[in-house]
Design brief:
Keywords: Hydrolase, Protease, Serine protease, Signal. Pfam families: Inhibitor_I9 (PF05922), Peptidase_S8 (PF00082). The chain is built from nine helices and 24 strands. With 385 residues, the protein is α/β, with parallel strands linked by helices. The strands form six sheets. Strands 9, 10, 11, 13, 15, 17, 19 and 20 form an eight-stranded parallel sheet that branches. A four-stranded antiparallel sheet has the order 3-4-2-5. A hairpin with a 5-residue loop joins strand 21 and strand 22. Helix 6 runs parallel beside helix 9 and helix 7 packs parallel to helix 8. The N terminus is likely disordered.
Length: 385
């Protein structure tokens, strides 16, 4: 008999709960990012306005504040948080915080993909590749038929291969939020991989997803290298909060240093009834150090990774809360760029398994056992259809 997992019953006190959290606003050295991206986030700030300001007044308030300070606004946020991003000197940011309209502000920062290794993508005629079911899909009880759900899965990531023959992409809803780019087309492969695990078609070729054939929406917030700014990522979350409906899902297989603005954006979007599946991260540390993984709220689920033997993945972040359950994240095959397929690992691969489950089951998961070797001493349950 499978046991239903509710958010409250999944959360236990982590053995590592005493670990120190990353200090909000610290600017750790960022590795593996371009000089352009580092320049983009340096001196960029995210301002959150008082919630009492009506949503239809946010744009006017932001423009007046920016004009007074002599700064150019980047993004304006209206649906998940109320606020904006803008580049300015530190002293200008500190002065703007004194405005009675402002609740708080944070530094911008860089988030990264939550995968650990990249294999070799399959190439050639995809129509000639007979369909197989990846081990992770089987382990969580899939595939299930998602083709007639009438609901969307939003992939907040590097974009999606928009014409992949094994995906049902809602092109009209797909958007790009990476400054300087215009297309939601995936230039990395990661977002396409996530989309395939959620919803690859049961069409006789390639692979099949948990919610096979469900419509996926590309919400591009990361560049071709798989990195992005918190300001851009919040803009993607804000879009999902605007157009998403209760019962739909959003997957975020990305993470970076602690950031309250991003956490609150996810929390508020989820309060609209949208289920968020968040990768726990791959630093083998307490997930409470990472945003958005540390977000702990109704309709928000943080997912750790396990291998095909149900062993806790050595790279996966841990800690209950915020982690709610584990799902397959080691050697996961899924869709990739140019109509191809790839096998990679990470909590990035675990989160979309859970997203597919939540899409099919309207936010409910069942226990498919527990992982072994969880470093916090509280074995994570395995989310199952």
């Amino acid at each position: 008999m499978k046991k239903e997992i509710g958010l409250a019953s999944l959360i236990a006190i982590a053995a590592s709960a005493g670990m120190a959290l990353a200090q909000e606003g610290e600017r750790p050295v960022q590795y593996g990012i371009s000089a352009d991206l580092q320049q983009k986030v340096d001196g960029n700030y995210i301002f959150v306005l008082n919630d009492e300001i009506p949503a239809n007044r946010v744009r006017g308030v932001v423009r007046r504040m920016a004009a007074r300070a002599g700064v150019k606004v980047g993004h304006i946020y209206e649906h998940s948080i109320k606020g904006f991003s803008a580049k300015m000197p530190a002293e200008t940011a500190a002065a703007m915080e004194e405005d009675p309209m402002v609740s708080y502000y944070t530094h911008d920062g860089v988030a990264f993909l939550s995968d650990t290794e990249v294999g070799t993508a399959a190439t050639g005629d995809v129509s000639a590749q007979a369909q197989s079911t990846p081990w992770g899909i089987t382990r969580v009880g899939g595939p299930a038929d998602g083709s007639n759900l009438g609901k969307y899965a939003f992939v907040i990531d590097t974009g999606i291969d928009m014409d992949h023959p094994d995906l049902n992409v809602a092109t009209s809803l797909s958007r790009n939020f990476v400054s300087g780019l215009s297309s939601p087309e995936d230039q990395n492969g990661h977002g396409t991989h996530v989309a395939g695990t959620i919803a690859a078609l049961d069409n006789g070729i390639g692979v099949v997803g948990v919610a096979a054939g469900a419509k996926v929406v590309a919400v591009r917030v990361l560049n071709a290298q798989g990195n992005g700014s918190f300001a851009d990522i919040i803009a993607g979350v804000d879009y999902v909060a605007q157009v998403g409906l209760a019962g739909e899902v959003a997957n975020m297989s990305l993470g970076g240093p602690a950031n309250s603005a991003l956490d609150n954006a996810v929390r508020n979007a989820a309060a609209k009834g949208i289920f968020f599946s968040l990768a726990a991260g791959n630093e083998a540390q307490n997930a409470n150090n990472v945003s958005p993984a540390r977000t702990n709220a109704a309709n928000v689920y943080t997912i750790s990774a396990h291998d095909s033997q149900d062993r806790f993945a050595s790279f996966s972040n841990f800690g209950n809360p915020p982690i709610d359950c584990a799902d397959p994240g080691v050697n996961i095959q899924s869709t990739w760029l140019n109509g191809s397929y790839n096998t990679i690992s990470g909590t990035s691969m675990a989160a979309p398994h859970a997203a597919g489950i939540f899409l099919i089951n309207n936010g409910t998961a069942f226990s498919g056992g527990v992982v072994s070797g969880d470093p916090d001493g509280n074995p994570d349950p395995i989310c199952h259809l």
